[in-house]
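Appendix B, Record 12. Input sequence as logged:
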Amino acid sequence: MSLPQHFLETGDGSRFPSIGLGTWKIPEAVLPDLVPEAVAMGYRHFDCACDYGNEPAVGEGLRRALASGLCSRDDLWITSKLWNTYHHPDHVRPACERTLSDLGLDVLDLYLIHFPVTLAFVPFEERYPPGWFFDPASENPSMKPVRIPLADTWGAMEGLVGAGLVKRIGVCNYSTALLRDLLAYASIAPQVLQVEMHPYLPQPRLLRFCHEEGIAVTAFSPFGASSYVPLQMALESESVLDDPAVLEIAAEQGRSPGQVLLRWAVQRGTVVIPKTQTPAHLRENIGIFDFALTPEEMSRLDALDRRRRFNDPAEFGEKAFNTFYPIFD
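Logged structural output:
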């Protein structure tokens, strides 16, 4: 049975599904069956990226969902992202076209700059997706930063809209300062900012700025540490799902801790993209539109702010890729 969806209106008046399925770290073998199952449950928003290495499998899942008549292409919102090695204007369109080919689509609903991180180009035929290392086989592999103005990359992103390859463009992992700079030179304003957000990192000032500027916000990693513990980027003890305040509110509401965190995100006016591989969690995650958190419960969750960022290139870049590359202060 399909469950009801909720939509956030973007600056261009589009209906952006408030719950999407994040595809980071979902194995390729799972996706061809998982995507149609999600569509059957009511999911219409799928968040993808070149770097996830599974876009062909997502594409196969979308093909099956459309072929079975579960929905039409116009019902879907498909997001993907430009990887760090393709920031030069000469490489933006080929990168987008490769993603479209892998997903089996003619147009993306949203294309985002994945990070404000500019790395040396790696040709498709050499390695795809290219990852973070410039030469993984070298004796001391590392990232290879290059200097490409973000304004040049954005200009090429705007060209994708003009070419009809993408409907909307936006950015990920931008700070308020970078957004201000982008708005000063953009001919097409960013429609969406995607950033890490959860009660341990609610980023209220960034969220308020985006709301005032008409930029929709997508919150990734809504459960906090859970995706990062296996990568040794977080401790089990940092799990937002196990926080006493979250558990108390879940008990009060008769809901799971995950549903409480997702409901908090939606009530703040963000779109949220939880990842899961199981049908039970798919249904649980989308089943949050028949209850609401009270103002007092929202305040209790807001008060959990630790400014704890799990996805930080300054930290994982140095630990995993031998390169210090800070983008957040």
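The beta strands are 7-9, 15-17, 21-22, 45-47, 77-82, 110-113, 169-172, 192-196, 216-220, 271-272.
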